[in-house]
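Sequence and fold
=================
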Amino acid sequence: MFNFDEKRFLSTQAGAVNQKDNINKVIDKVLPEIENIFFIGSGGVGILFDSTVEFARTRSSFPFYRVIAAEFMDSPNKTFSDKSLVVIPSLSGTTQESLDLVDFCNQRNIKTLALVGSPDTLLENKATFTVYNDVLDDTSSESYYLQGLMVVLRIMLKKGEITQENYDSYFDDFVKLPKELLKVKKQAENMAGDFAEKFQDTPYHIITGAGDSYTEAYYYGMCILEEMQWIKTRPVHAADFFHGTLELVEKGVSVLVFEGEDFSRPIVDRVRKFLPQVTDTITVIDTKEYEMDISDATRKIISPIILATILERVSAYLSDARKHPLTVRRYYKRIPY
């Protein structure tokens, strides 16, 4: 595959799965003492946990929240207390907002769980608990999506919201997931190359999705196309597409449709069926079209992971076609802001 380190990818995703016991130990220890969980991050890695909270919203009665670190510290939720667990994802473990947040929690004797992608970080040293899996930008989304699911599934099991059999079935599939995702990447290769050739000079994309998968639409638009490629985007939830955004669509306007396998398919299908009436520039990425040796029950909860794996291939080809490496920035960590 083009510009891809297969060995590193497999190691990263297997590493995420292998954090099961570490995550379970933390959840089992704190669950008798907590009433809610806050996923609080900054930027892209924080956004990924919107998917976790959306997953939990429709499957669990336990309260999960995803909020933005800087805003939260200025005005915490009223439900935030010493009976909360704060999960702080940070790829580098050095993000200032995350370090400020762990200090904020420590001052209030509130337990924190850091999910870090780099070793021996300041965040790891400050947090109550730490789970570490070595990741880089191009492999991080799947890892964090998976760790978020692992937290929620453990709580659902301990609260009696899923059976041990259901829980074990999910994890049997998770163990297979690294190699199955690799198969997905290989299936996506031709599509990704064609996309890059067609859209390398396109200055603007509308991106839509729904359910667990809307997070990937939001994340991919802001954190990849905008930050890493300087391409303007308009992520919009498929349910809101007909409340404003449809008026921006006309012939030649690119719309990217991300479709997963959860309850939200009919919501996305409505947009998918409408678009040919108003534009000839439509790209549909539907996880259901990719073959995997994974149960249907598990496929329904991992659509964001599959989308992230497919879109990494798109990013690799697009950055090459545009002669714009994904690491190039104008302002990020270059000037004060």
About this structure: The mean pLDDT is 96. The longest helix spans residues 164-199.
